Amino acid sequence: MTIAIYLAHLNPVTKSHVKIIEELKKENQVRVMPVIFMKEEKEINTRCFPFNFEIRKEMIQSVFGDSIMVLSNYTFYAPFVKYLPPLFSSYSWKLKKQVLNGISDDYFTYTGSKSEGLILKLYGLRPKLGKRKEISASFVRNKMYEAARGGDTDWEKYVPTGVNAIIQKNWDVIKKYCDTEDQTHKVSGMKFPDDGFQK
Asked: Where along the chain do its domains lie?
């Protein structure tokens, strides 16, 4: 079977992510690769990226079990600026090899973003463009932050039951970031943490 590679933040996993993966699963083997930012062997998390890889992996597996694979191939290592500009940086091409490590030649990458699809195409990563879902992870995340500050929100209805339980179990993460500044910046259509961006 063809391998579908889903590169995403998944912070948190929402019902929209689940729909995408379910569609990909119908005719493909699915490899989900949540983005990871590492600095000196420590994962960098921020208001935009509150949950670490292991928690996000647990979220995905709470829905899909072993029917898909969750891999850590999509990892950036500090200083993150070395991956820029895309295509011209040798490190950005190393990232492509990293993403494809252990993947057979029969694959494609999935994206809901036209701009991301163009970048993936330039890297030769065979993107398939899907329709962007209405509910984004940032929308759900902001509702969770509002709830952590005492607001009455309905964030729970946008995530699967198993993911809800994992978020509740790790609610201290949401409380940690609910009142912090956004310590990220966008470069070439990609968000990077400020910590670890430069040397």
From this structure: 3-193
Q: How confident is the model at residue 27 (pLDDT cuts 50, 70, 90)?
A: very high
Per-residue pLDDT reduced to its tens digit, 133-183: 778 999 999 999 999 999 999 999 999 999 999 999 999 999 999 999 999
Residue 54 structure tokens: 């292991």
Tell me, what amino acid is at 45?
Answer: N
Dihedral pair phi/psi, residue 161, rounded to 5°? -55, -45
Superfamily of domain 3-193: HUPs (3.40.50.620)
Q: Which of 21, 40, 45 is nearest to 31 (CA)?
A: 21
Q: Comparing 173 with 189, which gets the higher pLDDT?
A: 173
Residue ranges of the alpha helices (H) in the chain?
15-25, 53-64, 90-99, 114-122, 137-148, 161-169, 171-177
CA dihedral 199, 46, 33, 126 (to 10 degrees): -70
Could you give the CA distance from residue 119 to residue 57 in angstroms, rounded to a whole number?
Answer: 25
Q: Kindly state the DSSP code that residue 83 receives in the 8-state scheme.
A: G
- The H or E element containing residue 69 is strand 69-70
Q: What is the mean pLDDT of the chain?
A: 95
Residue 186 CA to residue 164 CA, distance in Å, equals 29
Q: Give the Cα separation of 156 and 165 in Å (integer).
A: 10
Cβ atoms of 49 and 8 within 8 Å: the answer is no
Quote the DSSP letter at residue 160: -
Could you identify the residue written with the tokens 């890297």?
123
